[in-house]
Write a structure and sequence with these properties.
The protein is an alpha/beta fold. It has 2 domains: 147 residues, HAD superfamily/HAD-like (Rossmann fold); 96 residues, 2-Layer Sandwich (Hypothetical Protein, Haloacid Dehalogenase-like Hydrolase, Chain: A, domain 2). 34% of the residues lie in helices and 24% in strands. The strands form 2 sheets. It has an 8-stranded mixed sheet with strand order 5-4-3-2-1-11-12-13, with helices on both faces. The protein has a 5-stranded antiparallel sheet with strand order 7-6-8-10-9.
Amino acid sequence: MMVDKLAFFDLDGTLCDNGPLSVTQATFAAIQKLKHENVLPVIATGRSYYEVHDLLKMLDLHTFILANGCYIVHDDQVIQNYHFPINRIKEVLTLADQNDDVVGYFNQQGFAISGMNPVTRGHVDRMRLTHVPINHDFFIQQPVNFLNLFIMNTREEIYQTAFKNQLSILRYAPDAVDVMPIEISKAQGILKIKKLVGHSNIETFAFGDQNNDLSMFSLADYGIAMKQATLGLKQRATYVAQSDHGVLEGLKHYGLI
């Protein structure tokens, strides 16, 4: 398809307005209309491929940024599959073990967690996860794209201080943060896709709700924050939704549908 504009969508709390990894019929129709208007819809999420492949197939989307930029696909071609260095994982895991915190290891085929505690159990229940593999040494046996730490915000400073200027630690849920190398982000994924589309000045729109969407908002021409978005994201936004269907509201506000 000819591409005149790019629209990047976070999933949880943003595009998925019908529950986890589920969209309303109106949102489905909006995504299809974007394509007919030469607006390329691109998923930009912290989720991995094993979680979202059914949704991508249903929406008929072939360009996406997963794992917060670790895994990038354009027109069904993998253009980036970043692997987290094992020595750095060991550093994070050592600090987590010292503080009785749990680490999550994620790649595009699956995940495991290093243990289980009440905070992690709360996260698992809220995300409606029914099978959670516990494998402290998962990262030795399989490549890992990125990490999670299951911690409340009162513990975030421990890791921010220990890995300052080394790792990006961004909250995506009340009880969990993404742990990424500082050179990997959703914004970096946007830059790669803009280059592949063919012109760096193409107009871009980003839709999100959490701080792991800040990098997108810093790069996109227009940032649309959901009604329930974090204060930091709302402050960076060019438009803040007032309804519970912020994607549809934002698309209409900017005349994209």
